């Protein structure tokens, strides 16, 4: 039986910060790879590779993936939502910037906070935690305020796809937390998602008429390797592990850090200036995380 915790410990905070730093970098990396590798084709390669790596990991550790445990239906639902999320992300990056799409993608905690307590009453959020989430979201909006009003005519489509991706991510988390999936290993939980994506995304790529060109530059090969090994395997396995052991509403608020890291990496990669807005937003995010993660005082 999985031992669940009621608060975030040092291990959880360390893993969450590591994931957020990488995910912020990853959004910029995905955008930079699009000129060479079509979006959904890129996503398909990523999840085919991640599925193979996860299967090898489970074989080496003796973790059963295919036993009958009553999770198939919930696992397929989570897998479809996960695949839809990444289809929206990769396609959306064609129309909007990585920074803008990341803002909308990371609205996912609101779906989690709003829906998980319906089934898990122990995770109802206190007023101070709602204030923390409001601070964190305000920080994200504040950090990107200067750029949200400008864009190409198709920017709205990319933004909408980013928002849809955020909803899919939030709903995936809700499915995991409120169904039999919460009882399975992190490996099996992730396997449902990457395996369904590995099956669905190549067919979607073909349906969209994307060219499958296999002559990649050294940069594209490195990008795909990093997306697959660190992104779709290591970081998502850590995320699934945490979902099974810590309150979903508390770990989900950390994702507000990712858009800020995406902006930082965008500034370093694309030489964009780091403004006072960004510094102020970082302070607000830190304050929001403290409010959400703080243990309730005992009476």
TrEMBL record:
Main location class: membrane
Superkingdom as given in the UniProt entry: Bacteria
EamA domain: residues covered: 11-143, 157-293
InterPro entries: AA-Vitamin_Transporters (IPR050638), EamA_dom (IPR000620), EmrE-like (IPR037185)
Compartmental location: Membrane
Keyword ATP-binding: no
Ranges annotated as spanning the membrane: 40-60, 72-95, 101-120, 127-144, 156-177, 189-208, 214-239, 251-270, 276-293
Keyword Transmembrane helix: yes
GO cellular component terms, A-Z: membrane
Keywords: Membrane, Transmembrane, Transmembrane helix
Membrane topology per record: Multi-pass membrane protein
Protein family (similarity comment): Belongs to the EamA transporter family.
Name the record gives this protein: DMT family transporter
Origin species: Rhodoferax sediminis
């Amino acid at each position: 039986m999985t031992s669940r915790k009621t608060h975030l410990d040092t291990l959880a905070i360390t893993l969450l910060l590591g994931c957020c730093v990488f995910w912020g970098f990853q959004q910029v990396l995905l955008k930079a790879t699009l000129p060479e590798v079509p979006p959904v084709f890129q996503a398909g390669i990523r999840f085919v590779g991640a599925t193979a790596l996860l299967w090898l990991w489970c074989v080496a550790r003796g973790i059963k993936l295919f036993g009958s445990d009553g999770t198939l239906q919930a696992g397929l639902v989570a897998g479809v939502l996960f695949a839809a999320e990444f289809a929206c992300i990769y396609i959306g990056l064609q129309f909007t910037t990585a920074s803008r799409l990341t803002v909308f993608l990371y609205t996912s905690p609101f779906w989690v906070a709003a829906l998980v307590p319906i089934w898990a009453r122990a995770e109802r959020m206190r007023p101070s935690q709602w204030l923390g989430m409001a601070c964190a979201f305000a920080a994200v909006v504040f950090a990107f305020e200067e750029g949200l009003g400008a864009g190409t005519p198709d920017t709205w489509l990319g933004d909408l796809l980013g928002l849809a991706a955020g909803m899919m991510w939030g709903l995936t988390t809700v499915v995991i937390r409120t169904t039999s999936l919460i009882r399975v290993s992190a490996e099996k939980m992730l396997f449902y998602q990457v395996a369904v994506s590995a099956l669905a995304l190549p067919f979607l790529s073909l349906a969209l008429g994307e060219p499958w060109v296999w002559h990649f530059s050294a940069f594209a090969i490195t990008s795909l390797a990093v997306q697959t090994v660190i992104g779709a395997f290591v970081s998502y396995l850590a995320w699934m592990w945490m979902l099974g052991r810590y309150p979903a509403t508390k770990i989900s608020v950390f994702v507000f850090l990712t858009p800020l890291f995406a902006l930082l990496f965008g500034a370093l990669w694309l030489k964009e200036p780091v403004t006072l807005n960004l510094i102020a937003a970082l302070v607000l995010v830190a304050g929001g995380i403290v409010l959400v993660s703080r243990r309730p005082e005992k009476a």
